[in-house]
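Field log, afternoon session.

UNIT: design team B
ACTIVITY: writing a sequence onto a fixed backbone
BACKBONE:
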């Protein structure tokens, strides 16, 4: 009798499991609302705010008309962030952070040159606007920029460390800097892997 009871229970279990018609799918994809409130975007926007706090001439775009300093109000050039271990290389992450830095500065009222529509800027396929120290003076002078924003990123076991600097184009002196970190999650990893 015992084997008959076990067989009956097993059959009942199979029948009950067949009652569920569709498997439950748990989505890890973000909603539009979650995407709109991206922590990645906010981290980069916060980094711009911190960088501008440290840049003496960037008190506010509106104050440019109240000063005799001709560099205040002049445009910024934002270079593509590069891999700290290979300064001639970037990734989708470096290009995206640079785009968000330029975007946020524009939203705050600063003038930012869009290098992708200008001639004479060192552009490398799939890299972005890479500016090395020797090129900063030439690019900034050609575009009459008050400062160049450059940066690097470095991947560690669990974080991506990002460094942003405001550089005086005439002297190559760092005027302001800000460091921050992003979690090395699936999203960030995918942006680093894309060249």
């Amino acid at each position: 009798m015992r084997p008959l009871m076990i067989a009956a229970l097993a059959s009942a279990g199979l029948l009950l499991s067949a009652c569920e018609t569709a498997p439950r799918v748990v989505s890890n994809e973000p909603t539009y609302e979650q995407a709109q409130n991206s922590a990645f975007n906010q981290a980069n926007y916060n980094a711009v705010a911190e960088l501008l706090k440290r840049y003496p001439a960037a008190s506010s775009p509106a104050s440019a008309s109240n000063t005799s300093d001709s560099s205040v109000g002049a445009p910024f050039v934002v270079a593509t962030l590069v891999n700290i271990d290979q300064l001639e290389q970037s990734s989708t992450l470096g290009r995206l952070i640079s785009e968000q830095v330029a975007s946020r500065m524009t939203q705050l009222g600063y003038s930012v040159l869009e290098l992708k529509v200008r001639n004479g800027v060192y552009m490398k396929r799939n890299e972005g606007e890479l500016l090395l120290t020797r090129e900063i003076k030439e690019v900034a002078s050609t575009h009459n920029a008050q400062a160049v924003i450059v940066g690097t990123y470095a991947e560690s076991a669990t974080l991506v460390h990002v460094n942003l600097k405001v550089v005086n184009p005439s002297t190559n002196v760092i005027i302001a800097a800000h460091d921050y970190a992003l979690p090395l999650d699936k999203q960030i990893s995918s942006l680093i892997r894309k060249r």
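LOG NOTE: Strands lie at 76-78, 82-83, 123-124, 128-129, 147-155, 159-167, 174-183.
NEXT ACTIVITY: expression trials, pending approval
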